Fold this sequence. Notes:
heterodimer; A: alpha/beta; eight-stranded mixed sheet; B: alpha/beta; 12 helices; about 15% strand; binds guanosine-5'-triphosphate; binds magnesium ion
Amino acid sequence: xxxxxxxxxxxxxxxxxxxxxxxxxxxxxEEVLISSDVGVETTLKIIDRIEAKVAKDKYVSTEExxxxxxxxxxxxxxxxxxxSVDGIVIPEVENTPYVIMVVGVNGVGKTTTIGKLAHQFxxxxxxxxxxxxxxxxxxxxxxLIIWADRVGVPIVQQGMNADPASVAFDTLxxxxxxxxxxxxxxxxxxxxxKVNLMNExxxxxxxxxxxxxxxxxxxxxxxxxxxxxxxxxxAKQFSLATDINALAIxxxxxxxxxxxxxxxxxxxxxxxxxxxxxxxxxxxQLFDKVEFVDSLFN
Amino acid sequence: xxxxxxxxxxxxxxxxxxxxxxxxxxxxxxLKEVRRALLDADVNFKTAKEFTTKVKDKAIGRNVLTTVSPxxxxxxxxxxxxxxLMGGEHEDINFKGNPGIILMxxxxxxxxxxxxxxxxxxxxxxxxxxxxxxxxxxxxPAAIDQLHVLGEQLGVEVFSNRExxxxxxxxxxxxxxxxxxxxxxxxxxxxxxxxxDEKMMDEIAAVKQAINPTETLFVVDAMTGQDAVxxxxxxxxxxxxxxxxxxxxxxxxxxxxxxxIKTVVDKPIKFVGTGEKMDALDIFYPSRMADRILGMGDVxxxxxxx
Lengths: 298, 306
Ligand SMILES: Nc1nc2c(ncn2[C@@H]2O[C@H](COP(=O)(O)OP(=O)(O)OP(=O)(O)O)[C@@H](O)[C@H]2O)c(=O)[nH]1
Ligand SMILES: Nc1nc2c(ncn2[C@@H]2O[C@H](COP(=O)(O)OP(=O)(O)OP(=O)(O)O)[C@@H](O)[C@H]2O)c(=O)[nH]1
Ligand SMILES: [Mg+2]
Ligand SMILES: [Mg+2]
């Protein structure tokens, strides 16, 4: 609330027909963006764009400036970053089931996001199977079992300390036999600077193609919405190891804004697909870029 | 990941080669680089601003020794200032009492349960204590199992009650149990919570009030961005914690949140988490943290020698 007020009140100082945005407005814009974890580089990029745009077109009102600003930020987000009218969909693939592998650093919300996704798919009448390939973190398998029970979907697991690639292999085999529509594979949290663990991830990924050619169809990188600039490096390193092609941002029900994804989406051309807004199974939403940009100024 | 600070300084000072003194004019560009380095490291926006002003005041008018370049001198000033801000001496966790009681708090996924295990391990093996772990997270799926698995690994008993849904009652019962069974430190793990979740914040305040801990800890992920300021402040306002635990420092984050938290709530950082294993904890060194935030290599030691 506070940010919005001060930001908008600063905006009203601007004068009609100006061809330059005054320094005070820009300072304020910078503060809003940096405080939302947008990062210096992306912030400067946004400010440059606003300046260029205003110099060319001259804005007439604060609303207009506000509109230009939001449009410019939204432009940095990937093209396909707006929610479809149909809500969550399972894309058509040549070889079914549609396989989603979920990856990310420790504690970001991978397992919870899987529970929520499974619930969404199940509510759509789809047949979902979960695979417990986090065989490392204490009680990780138990946690996914509880989610599977809660949602009412089958889970494939080999207990703790099993080979995660072997669990993934098993899960796909079982899902195929059951004629499942969607498979979601949980993996252990790992920091992206740990080479061995990143290699293990490539291995888990590669084994799936042997059962379902083309799988995993979706490698979903989960980012914690309260993470700062380190999320960039996470996106880079996980991309290198697993070709991530979708992002989920969690914990946006808190005060953190998750602004770092603007730069990530812009530079790496990876769409943000989902946002997490709570710990319950209904607390998952499709990412809506207009709403997201609005929330930076709320 | 990022260009390190001394490289940035060298670049900023390049145009000014040969100037023997740091002045208002020649320092401006360099301070911009300092500020940017801090923001890239996730230091809070306002904290970064204040910091650069301080550094500027210290730097202006200082003569540059012939052996040291302006950029090296500025790096040294930044480093000194940062170390000072992050607190000098290491402060221990207070676990003395009958029993000593340690309460964990923090956001979801910050590393509370893992750190509870690490601390139990440290107390048992390094301090010859007999700790009891207490499972007060009644919400997260398999949170109680997670603590039991860790306890079993460590040979440390875990107190839990799967029928009881009130963390206050579990914590109280655990302390009674500890007293009559010869445990001398009680470590209370709690559920993750958002600072704006009033009901959950009231809950942890109630737990604290009921058990009167010797030490209340705020566990925070070192990768946290600008929100660190809001969270730390809100938790401190509500439960007035005694110390901070910075987790996941085995990653490559600069960890600027450490500086933010220290500046905003002025509570010492007591331990850092450096891995998922139970012995992956380390005491906090302000100087190493300063290096890390500034992304510095050997510049400081170079200047020390000069
Ligand atoms: N408030 C909030 N909490 C969340 C959200 N998503 C996950 N969490 C919580 O964050 C914590 C960690 O979530 P997990 O799903 O276990 O995270 P993970 O990435 O699987 O963790 P590891 O497997 O240990 O790496 C749990 O307490 C979740 O309830 C969200 O969108 N909002
Ligand atoms: N690499 C690394 N991982 C850590 C560290 N501390 C904790 N973790 C991991 O981070 C994830 C979350 O840790 P937890 O201890 O479950 O976090 P929590 O705060 O208890 O989470 P909630 O109870 O869901 O709020 C797990 O995967 C841990 O293994 C650390 O210092 N380094
Ligand atoms: Mg998990
Ligand atoms: Mg926990």
